[in-house]
Amino acid sequence: MKKLICVLFMLLVTFFLSACNNEPTAQGRFKEYIKLWNEQKFAEMYDFLTADAKQRITKEEFVGRYEKVYGDLEISDLKVTTNPPKEEVEGEEADFSFSAEMNSLAGPISFQHSAPLKKEERNDAENWYVHWDTTFIFPELGAEDKIRLTSTPSLRGEIVDRFGNGIAMNGTAYEIGIVPGQMEGKEQEIISQISELLGVSPERIQEALNADWVQPDYFVPIKKISTEETELLAAVTSIPSVVKKDVPARVYPYKEAAAHLVGYVGPITAEELEELSGKGYTSSDVVGKRGMEQVLEERLKGENGAKIYIEKADGSEVVLAEKEAVNGENVALTIDMNLQTKIYNELNGEPGTGIALHPLTGETLALVSSPSFNPNTATLGATGQFWQELEENPLKPLTTRFKQRYAPGSVMKPITAAIGLNQGAITPDWTIDVNGLQWQKDSSWGDYKVTRVKDTNGPVNLDRALIVSDNIYFAQAALQIGAQGFTEGLTSFGFGEEIDYPFPLDPGNIGDLENEIRLADSGYGQGQIEMNIVHLAAAYTPFLNKGTMLRPTLLAEQETSQPWKENLVNAEIVNQINTSLRKVIEDRNGTAKTARIDGYPLAGKTGTAEIKEQQGVQGKENGWFIAYNLDNPELLIAMMVEGVQDKGGSEAAVSRVRNVIASQR
Fold first, then answer.
1. Please, which pLDDT band fits residue 148 given cuts at 50, 70 and 90?
2. Cis peptide before 371 (omega within 30 of 0)
3. Domain holding 650: CATH number?
4. What is the DSSP secondary-structure string of 139-204?
5. Looking at the DSSP assignment, which residues form a beta bridge with residue 223?
6. Which ranges of 352-511 would DSSP assign to H, the alpha helix?
7. Mean pLDDT of 652-660
8. Which of 29, 53, 208 has its CA nearest to residue 136?
9. What DSSP designation does 240 have?
10. Domain count for the chain
11. Which of 164-168, 280-284, 586-590 has the lowest mean pLDDT?
12. Which own/partner pairs from 266-272 qualify as long-range (CB within 8 Å, at least 24 positions apart)?
């Protein structure tokens, strides 16, 4: 019996001790609260608050305030830690210290604080609860204080040419607006006048005037215009109630001449904001929409400054974190804007593209697409009508032509010659003797024939074939080289390869050369052969760099005279091709004889690429010309003009290139 009593007593003691050990401790409860805080489970945190704390703030208010503060300040990497004493707390109250670290929009924030806990009975059970107040958010935050965030915008980096001339600059625009209280009962008349002058619909103007924030003496912005639009400014500000403000704006001094190259900026869209999440963008930012503004976005953007502070009830400030604005990086291009403008003006609105390259360094001195658009209008908030007119224009002014690839036509022939000579498939003395204007290999070609522009009246060697631009010669040369050899040769000249170039370009295309007719056509730049104009210009640099094709550059910081492809041709081949290309201009039978400039020896090659669905019908023609000075090779210019079938063929490009080169002597 005594034994049984002893066992029962021991079980009772064990049960009592176990029950004591299961009672919640202040340390354990606070650690649970800290864990929820780190996980930002604010609704569950609220359940840990004392009854007094809950009297001061509802669960909805508690959760909403934390979410708003952490969201607005972009709080991340939150780490709250505590190390309470191991000794059990005696009594009904405890006080534990804790520390908090976090990153924010304005930089790191850290603080130390203490948390009072109280033991309270709820649902017939005692537990520990946190006596929360606003100082848990930030120790300096009183019940009546406000958390403020201010932003200091950074300046976008500027884009300049090789001489420091601004291409994309931070400048000023005029913002046209209305002061509603000054309309004096003439609202509809004034809205109609403004609509007609600014190209903004009356509905949009009325919507701006009806905004909730508008007061009679407020300035209501309607549209921004360039500071160069002085006549428009005078006309619109003569209307009662209309005023203008000077506002910061992105400015493009060279307008259409550089639009495709530099692009423009515009307000960030919701989709762009999502794509750029975590990179410091806000809904009020602008981003590059095309061109180098878009390509260089990360470098140009800069980083806005920010300050997070507590505005005390007495008006004083307590700064929690502050970050200085970092302006975007200024970037210099290799472009010479005077030359860029000259080439653009020579195209005179005709659809086409042009490039100027320094053939010994690879620097891009000009890169033009025509026709174009005014980037100042685009960036200041162009109307839908502005974009619609550009999109519906048959000359396609929104197409960046130097990015696209085209059939090169006869400007391809020196490349074919270089490949054939280098592989030993042809020699300078290799001759064809074809009478008439057309030729086909045999009857297996059916009705298809290669056509030359004019009868050569006798045998043709490589020199004469380049001078008179004989399609039949280079069709036969391609067949001599063969599909495999020609493919290998074109690949060695960079076809099918992405060019390591700051502005994204469509890579050159070879196509299927197993088809014999297509192989023959490819020899003179037709078939499926295509290349962009930057690639074309680079492909002529081996003739001035001992067989090395240079990598073209566009940024002034890039190392120059860097090889893209080496040992494409030897010195003998270089001399052979240059001698013939000199005669293209100097010989009385040369296809570019009108490009001759007295005292300034040029070498060059014309090209006419025909675009049509079938043989026997006239198609659209693109005229090409590329030229450089052999004695002082500092400038290589290539140009393509579209739709020259009724404008003298390649002569449309020859005359323009000659004018540009003559202006640069």
1. very high
2. yes
3. 3.40.710.10
4. TT--TT-EEEEEEEPPPPPPEE-TT--EEEEEEEEEEEEE-GGGSTT-HHHHHHHHHHHHT--HHH
5. 176
6. 375-379, 384-392, 413-423, 462-468, 471-481, 483-492
7. 98
8. 53
9. T
10. 3
11. 280-284
12. 266/378, 266/379, 266/381
Query: Which among 410, 469, 522, 650 is annotated as catalytic?
Result: 410
- Say whether both 616 and 535 belong to one domain: yes
Per-residue pLDDT tens digits for 20-48:
456 889 999 999 999 999 999 999 999 99
Beta strands in 458-591 (DSSP E): 549-550, 563-565
* Largest pairwise CA distance in the chain: 137
Q: Give yes or no: residues 138 and 218 share one domain.
A: no
Across 603-623, b (16+ Cβ under 10 Å) vs e yields bbbbbbbbeeeeeeeeeebbb
Asked if the structure places residue 360 within a domain, the reply is: no
Q: Are residues 131 and 229 in the same domain?
A: no
Task: Locate 203 and state its tokens.
Answer: 């509905």
Residue 12 has pLDDT above 50, yes or no: no
Q: What is the mean pLDDT of residues 416-429?
A: 98
pLDDT at 1 > cutoff 90: no
Amino acid at 409: G
Domain enclosing residue 424, as ranges: 400-664
- List all residues 6 or more positions away from 436 whose beta carbon is below 8 Å from its beta carbon: 455
Distance in angstroms (rounded) separating the CA atoms of residues 360 and 381: 42
Residue 650 appears among annotated catalytic residues: no
- Within a domain: 79: yes
Nearest CA-CA partner of 129 in 121, 139, 137: 121
Question: Residue 6: pLDDT above 50?
Answer: no
If asked whether residues 645 and 496 sit together in one domain, one would say: yes
Average pLDDT over residues 52-74: 97
Do 131 and 171 lie in a common domain?
A: no
Res 3: pLDDT = 53
Shared-domain flag, residues 453 and 553: yes
Task: For residue 186, tell me if it sits in a domain.
Answer: yes
Residues 115, 206 within the same domain: no
User: For strand 159-160 and strand 331-332, is the pairing parallel, antiparallel, or unpaired?
Assistant: parallel
CATH code for the domain of 261: 3.30.1390.30
- Of 119, 143, 167, the one marking the end of a domain is 143
Task: Give domain status of residue 464, yes or no.
Answer: yes
Alpha carbon distances (Å) from 351 to 60, 291, 301, 427, 564: 63, 18, 33, 38, 30
Rounded mean pLDDT, 643-652:
93
CA separation, residue 4 to residues 16, 257, 301 (Å): 18, 106, 84
What is the CATH number for 114?
3.10.450.100
Does residue 89 contact residue 81 with C-beta atoms inside 8 Å? no
**Signed CA dihedral, 610, 612, 617, 622: sign only:** negative
Q: Among candidates 579, 570, 592, 587, which has minimal Cα distance to 638?
A: 592
| Residue (of 581, 575, 504) closest to 535 by Cα position | 504
Indicate whether 171 and 45 sit together in one domain.
Answer: no
